Amino acid sequence: MKQLLLIVTLAGEKIALRTDDVQSVIELEVLTPVPCAPAHVAGLSSLRSRVLTVIDCQSSLGLGRAASPEPGAPAAVVVHDGHAYALLLDSVLDVTEAQSEPAPVRTRPEGDWARMSHGVVETDVGPLLLIDVAALITGPEEARAA
After folding, report:
1. Distance CA 116, CA 137 (A)
2. In the chain, how many domains are there?
3. How many angstroms separate the CA atoms of 31 and 69, rounded?
4. What angle do CA 87, 89, 94 make, to 5 degrees?
5. Average pLDDT, stretch 98-106?
6. Contact criterion met (CB below 8 Å) for 41 and 86
7. In the chain, at which residue ranges do the beta strands (DSSP E only) sit?
8. Nearest Cα to 139, choosing from 28, 41, 36?
9. What is the pTM of this model?
C-alpha cells in the first residue's frame, strides 16, 4: 500500500505531511499566548477538552513569525511523544498518494526546509517536500540550543 499524503501550503509553499502523522485537520478558534515560550510556539488552543500546543511552522522553518492566526485558521493536529500539537498552516489542499520514496533535497531553498523534511516525494501533482513533523515541533536551531 502506498503512503497517503496530506497536501498543504506552508509559508506559501505546497508541501506534504504523512497522513499517518496527522490525527485531524481543524480550524483554530482561540489562541492563548504563552509567556517565555520559544518563538516557534504560537500559543495554546484546545480541541475537545484537550490542550494543544500551537506551532508556528513558518517560524520553525526560520522564515520569521507568521501573522497572528485569525479564528478559523487551518491547523493539522499531531501527537508527538505523547503530547498534542496543532501545526499552523496556510491552507489544506488535498490528499494524494506518494509515488516514490523520499529522495534527498537537492536545492537550497530559503529557510530550513531541508532539515525540516524527510526529502522530496513524487506525487500525482508533482514533486512535494515531505515534512518531518517532529522537526517542526522541535523548532529552529536556536530553540534546540535553549
Report:
1. 10
2. 1
3. 8
4. 110
5. 90
6. no
7. 4-10, 13-18, 22-28, 41-47, 50-55, 73-80, 83-88, 91-97, 117-123, 126-131
8. 41
9. 0.91
